[in-house]
Design brief:
8-stranded mixed beta sheet; 15 helices; 19 strands; 490 residues
Amino acid sequence: MERSEDKPFKVIVVGGGIAGLLMSHALGQAGIDHVIYEKRESILNPEGASFGIWPHAARIVDQLGLWPKVQEMSIPMKMLENRAPDGSLLHRTNLFEKMTSRHGYDFLVLERQQFMKMLYENLPDKNRVVVGKSISDYINRPDSVRVVLDDGSYDDGDILVGCDGVNSKVREIMWGHANTTTGRAVTAIEKRSLRTEYCCLLGVAPLMPGMELGNMTVTSHRGFSLMIMTQSSQTFFFVNIKLTKPLAWPNQGRYTVEQTEKEAARFATLPVAECILFGELWKRRLRGHLYPLEECVFNLWHFERTVLVGDCVHKMTPVLALGGSCTLESVAVLVNEIKNGVSTHPRSKPNASEIDNIFHRYQTAREARVRMIYQLTYENIRSQARDGIMRTLYAPFAALWIDDAAVADRFSALVRVAPKFDFLPKSQRPSGSIGFDDDTARAELPPGNMLKKPSRDQHWSENLNSLFPHCHYLMSLLLVLWGLCPKEWR
C-alpha cells in the first residue's frame, strides 16, 4: 500500500462554483495536484444574475490568463446614478471610469453563469472536476484527510478546501469535528451569527429601449432599494427587500414561485430609470428569482486539515459587487500560502502542524480586510433601503454631500492594497495613475503621493461625515419631540 508521504501533495476541493473553479485554475498553475467535487450534475446552473469584477479582482483574473476572455463578454461600466423614489435623478458620477484611469482595469459586470462557463471551459484539465458527487463526511488522519462521498466512495488528500457556498456542508462537518475534538470551538452564538435581514428579487432581462449602456442605477425607498446594471444586450436587476422578521441559521428562508411573483407585483409600478418601470423588466425577464441575503463573517475559518473559502466563511450582500471580488482575493491568498508551504518541502510534505500554520497565515492575512469590506456592504444595503431613523433622515441629503473625488479615493484605497498571486507574473497592462501598492515600480512612493490633494468640496464632505455621528442624540431628541406633537401639527 502506497504511503501518503510517497504521493504528491493533493488538495480536495468541495464545490464547483466560482470559488472552486478559480481554485482549480490557481492550483493548476501552482503545479499542485487537486480534484473538485460538485454535487450538481452540471457545473452550469441558472441561479444568480451578475458577477461584478473590480480592478483588483481583474488583476487576479488577468494573472490566470483569463481577463481577455472576460473582456469579450462585457462592456466597461461607466456611470453610477442615484435616484429618488419617483425616479428623478439625485446624483450621477463617472466613478467606474475614474477607477479605470487610476488602476488600469475596467469595472466589468457579466452574467454569472457566463463567467462560470468561461472558467470551466478554459480549465487545462476538466477531468479534475467531478460532478454529481457530494461530501457526506471526512476523516482526519495524522498524515491525510479522507473525504467520504455520498455514494460511499472516498478520496484521500492532504487538505480539504470548502468552496461550497453559504449553506456549506464542509463547514457543518468541520463544526462537528471541532466541537467533538475541543469541546466548544464553535458556539451557538457563532452558528447563529449567519443572519438574514434582507431578501433579493434578482434576475436578467433584455436591454430596454432608452437605457444607457454601462450604467448602474440605484433607487432608494423606505424598506427596500432597486438596482439595475446595463450591458450591451442585458439588464441585471436587484430589489433588496428588508424582512419584517430577521432569520438566523439554520432558518435562512426559501421562497416559492408564488412568493416571488407576489413580491414582484409589489414593485411593478416603480421606476428603475428615467423611463422604465420595474414591471416592464419583470415582464420581459429571461430569469428571475427571490433569494435570502445571508450576512456573516465567521470566526473559525479552518480546523485541522480543513479550510473554508468564499461565501461559506464570509458572506456579503450584492450591493457593492464586492463579495465576488472578495472571494477571488481569498483564493489568491490561500493558494499563495499552500504553494509556499509545499515548496519548502521538496522531498516531503508539510505536516499537520505546518498545515495549520498555512491556514492560520491565510486567515490572518484576510480576516481584517474581509471584515472591513463586509461592514461596507452591511451599511450600504441598509443606507439604500433607508433602514432605521438615522439612515432615513440622512438619505435625502446624502447626494448633496457626495464628492466624486472623495468617493473614488475611498474605493482606490480599498483596491490598491488588494492581494494577488505571488507566484504568477504580474500583468504588463498599464497600471493607471495609482496602480497597486505591491507594484515594485511604485513601491518607493509614499501613500500620500498616490492620491491627489483633497479639494475643498472633499474636505467639506469629510467634515460632514465626521460631524454626522455627533448629531445623533440631537436628532433623536428632535424626533421624539416630533412624535409627541399632535397629528395636526405634523
